[in-house]
Amino acid sequence: MMQLNPFYYGGIIEDEYFCNRVEELKDIKLDILAGLNTLIYAPRRFGKTSLVLKALKELEKKDEVKYVFFDLMYLSTVEEFINKYFNALAKTLEEPTDKIIKFFKSILKIRPNINVSFDVTGSSSFSLALGGEDVDKTLEEVLNIPLAFAQNGIKIVIVFDEFQEITNLDLESKLRSIIQLHSNKLAYIFMGSKKSLLHQMFLDKNRPFYKSVKHFKIKEINANSWYEFIESKFLNTGKKIDHAVVDKILTITKGFPYYTQQFAYEIWNITQDKADESLFEKALKTILSREEDLFSVEFDNLTSNQKKALKIVIEKNGQNVYDEQYLAKYKIKSGSLQISLKNLTERDILDKTSSGYYLQDPLFEYWLKQMSQC
Length: 374
Prior knowledge:
Layout: H1 22-33, E1 38-41, H2 48-61, E2 66-71, H3 78-93, H4 97-107, E3 113-118, E4 124-129, H5 135-151, E5 156-161, H6 172-179, E6 186-192, H7 195-203, E7 214-217, H8 223-236, E8 240-241, H9 243-253, H10 257-269, E9 274-275, H11 277-300, H12 304-315, H13 324-329, H14 334-346, E10 350-353, E11 356-359, H15 362-373
Parallel strand pairs: 1-6, 1-7, 2-5, 5-6, 8-9
Antiparallel strand pairs: 3-4, 10-11
Helix pairs in contact: 1-2, 3-5, 8-9, 9-10, 10-11, 12-14
């Protein structure tokens, strides 16, 4: 029988594929049960959705919560928001269709028609027949539906993924005005990958969500956890991996979950008995070839000064980037560099800490380094 690869990437990470995050899981569960509203942000493909869903499913298994997961990406109208959110709420009930409809009719003061459709598998989908004059009132009632759940003795958690997209619908103020009335009866988790936009929403005192949440930044998984996770997965499947190979993986990925799992997955696939550095190099070549088109497009879309700024950040390891020697080397003025760094940060290509700038995507950084050596 063909043996399954013990590593996984590219989707929701669950069960045996999940590495560490013990403390983060504990903290998120405590915040949920306390009814805190939380902002969780991390770069794309960093595992925030997997982390939050794991915490929620573990609580749900103990009958401590029910949760609604709602992705705001690709919504274009308020009506679309209302219907997709209403459908997500209906799915949470897990009751026969007639009971769901009866429940909604008992709590909705307005009377839009509730439509139900079924796909080929028999799965139901719910929507509301909206008239133009009913939209604002219907929006308010739909946003208050989770409160009716909670008043029935059920702990409800609402997860808004890619929450920064709410600004495109002009719903920021309306949503905040309703959510603040839900107090600790409900727990809201706001997630997103566009840190610059989320910071504007939650840290600007002129914005509705200013100081309304606990900030929860997901960090890289520590190296020791990765060593144990990767080496044990190889051993449990009858293979071995040199400690030095894991070193090389983490040197490039810096503990970034998606890429670390991807490297481990590719190396395991080509390992017969033992993974050595030659197999690492082969896997690295394969992974870079797959990502090259994406990285090339991203780099080509930058301005000349932005490209120079990235090169300076890489060469200076993010520190003392206004070094006159480097400004002269790349023929860029300090004012132009400052603007470029700001633009790259707003585009979430760069981020900044107290120690300096860094690229959010570690494999993109490695690819740029290789390009500069050509």
